[in-house]
Amino acid sequence: MARAGAGVVIACYTDRTSLQPGEGFSLHASTDAGPCRLEVARIGAARETVLVREGIAVGAHPTPNDADRNGCGWPAAAQVEIGADWRSGYYDLALTNAAGETARHFVCVKAAPANRRRMVLVLTTNTLHAYNYWGGASAYCDVEALMSRRAGLAEAMAGAIGVLSTQRPFPPLLLAAPQDMPRLVNLEKRGFEQRPWAGADPAWSRAHGQSPYDGSAGYLNKWEHVFVCWAETAGYDFDYLTDYDLDADPEALAPYDVALLVGHSEYWSGPQRDRIEAWVDGGGRLAIFSGNTAFWKVRWEDAGRTLVCHKWKGETAEEVDAADATHLWSHPMFARPEAAITGLSFIFGGYHRLGLCAARGAGGYTVYRPDHWALAGADLYWGDVFGDQVPLLGYENDGCPIAFGDDGLPAPRPGLGVPAGLEIAAMAPAAFAESPSPYRPLIPPEQLDVVAQIAFGDDGPQAQARVLRGHAVMASFRRGKGEVFNAGTTEWAHGLGAGDPFVERITRNVLERFQTAAT
Fold it and tell me: Are strands 119-123 and 239-242 parallel, antiparallel or unpaired?
């Protein structure tokens, strides 16, 4: 493990994270207790070990002060070739030193052309890299300064970096936390005059040194692995790609009929979005079981070694063409709000059952269109709430402006890319940020004035207050020859993990409709 930017016990990274059978990667590592043992295993519904290598010589190497921006520069300790019989999937790399301490990393194995399936899961690796604070800082915060108490939250957030290296390890709690790490949702409603809280168990956080950003990304930590366990057990097969594959390969999606986004697909590059849109327009089916989807625009450089992500600073931090700049996808400099391809936006959604954001919310969706195709056979009727026992809604959720027609049904209000043909099946209250209160804010502040100006053309107090009144929305729409379903929440996979029959039926309806439509 490693303390970000401090002394290293054992840590490792790879020179690339997505490969086909027959291709190889370099494993870079540092420890003062070599030699090491490497175990490589595919992580699906079961753990399938495919490689064990003993006696790897690893030395102790210093961590550069700028490792978060420019990488570690450690020498390669091993070369690994992807076996011809390795199935497409997420592969865990566990490197253990002579003292019994283990570091983790991963690679995605893509399918060989002759073995491709009809569906593909696009791992949300851009989000993982944006949250990576190993070496000090992430796109969010100087996490080392925050956790060492050298800086308060505001000062630490000012230390966020916009250029992030992939040539460094990941913090253990970000990549592969213990199974009992709390979810990012309040499992209980806030009681009368109860002090707000935000998901994490304070005792667990203290015991494990959890930062405010751990748990927001990572295949093993939250959403994708939970979804894969359910899907494989239910008999669904699919291949795997990373976000970067869609940036680097114009034909990455071409072999597939259905693409799946699960959990927290928050960061999309320009080429990635171009290819998703063209693929959907040409007949692809996009199933979004994610929240906060395509919120930030990012850029890849150095053949995938550097992710550029200036977030709120993107307007002024870069001297590049608007097409290459980074900021909110909904920013007017791009004229490409994310709702044009996802149907929804976090700007019109927000948090649920977290801090003071819908703190007493139901934790589930209320049904408004029981005849929507996604609800077929789900035994759901107008006004029913489903998923509340999980809870299904929490952390981050996407929505759209809503107006009720004379028939009493919700419809999308036009604007900021929301498709006119969007069909809303279910929804629930959400909030982009916490409302003013006597309590200390628990969710890091966003720039409400910027968001209000983008959403409503006005950055005044009333417009900012309007941003706080959002909805989580489950909806679908057709685009070109294709179709998009959006579950509207990061937490959808947990409904599957909990065996919720409503969530399972809806998920099956989406997957089976999309596969059938493509035949």
Answer: parallel
